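Objective 1.3, modelling of assemblies. Example input:
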Amino acid sequence: KQEVTQIPAALSVPEGENLVLNCSFTDSAIYNLQWFRQDPGKGLTSLLLIQSSQREQTSGRLNASLDKSSGRSTLYIAASQPGDSATYLCAAISGSARQLTFGSGTQLTVLP
Amino acid sequence: DGGITQSPKYLFRKEGQNVTLSCEQNLNHDAMYWYRQDPGQGLRLIYYSQIVNDFQKGDIAEGYSVSREKKESFPLTVTSAQKNPTAFYLCASSLRLAGGSFFYNEQFFGPGTRLTVL
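Predicted structure (tokens):
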């Protein structure tokens, strides 16, 4: 059964800092991995989707990488801003689960 | 404006009462999903539907029911059999990929409904 873990649960950084959010998964036979952003009391906004054949995806200041052999994905945020403060969730789809399995998220606070 | 709408935003339920949460999408997506989110936790799948008049149970379907009479609509009923229904409920949709798979495609989410039991 696929399990997805995100550590740390919470992270605070000063504005302007580059940062990395971590996501690990137990079943390396994944089809894709998706990163989401969730603001308090809101739905999820899809940030990046990495297919199993890809190593990374980029969108603006965001870069997501995927290493299936080590069971890890990272979300890199460059030049962080207070507006980046939110909870970031990763979710993986694997052949065994055939559904999105979510991590519990990392709550990011960017301090002005 | 294409997207997914959920209503109501807040819902209060009395003990023993059934309530229905609405989810509508105008993205022409084939598949729709319902998830439950509890504080500090990730999302858990309740039900999903790949096509009209068909739906499948997810990991936590007990105490819930759904219908899919129209492609754009996937309402969720929280029945009195659900013992701990207080949670944030999220609806999502995705396209079906060539070859029939759909879970492997990007999922888009609605704004959510917060259900509280009084």
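The radius of gyration of chain A is 13 Å.
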